[in-house]
Design goal:
glycosidase, Glyco_hydro_47, alpha+beta, calcium ion binding
Length: 222
Amino acid sequence: MSPGKRTSSNRAIETNLIRKSSSGLTYIAEWKGGLLEHKMGHLTCFAGGMIALGADGAPGEKTGHQMEQAAEIARTCHESYARTALKLGPEAFRFDGGVEAIATRQNEKYFILRPEVIETYLYMWRFTHDPKYREWGWEAVQALEQHCKVEGGYSGVRDVYASTPNHDDVQQSFYLAETLKYLYLLFSDDDHLPFDHWVFNTEAHPLPVIQKDKTDLPNEVE
């Protein structure tokens, strides 16, 4: 995507979807049937990393603003984990009825080993080297080990607000393909799959950046 289209997309998201709670948490709401629902899904937490990536190639005057947005979204997604009993994030969390970054409906309180929050921690660490992103990642590792590890692997849990985990007995394939991969890279050196040589697709598959040699370009017509 060209820088111009990226900027236009970010502007539309900021104008129509990004909101700030009364306590200052930045979140990305959902647009449904012409109405804004003040709910942010765990899946949407990838957007912190996406906005940080966009900032890396944005016009100079936009870079700082977008990085600030990315950091705020990362913080909000971390809060969705920190405000649960198990320190694992719910499938979706709301900003209405006096609650912030908390799931209020039973069908949104589950955790199925999703990667998006860890993904944003990885991008924010690579771009800023702020140690809190590794600290937040390690909090997630400890929670996964304590509450999701079972005899045959790792399991999702049905309610992250319960004091003891009720496992769903499912290890999603993306836990290995994405969640653990992002955690591994979060604690690896930056030159291990560096972003200027590799692009991760939406399922965390690394694709090499092909640099076209100038000698391969066709000769200009004289």
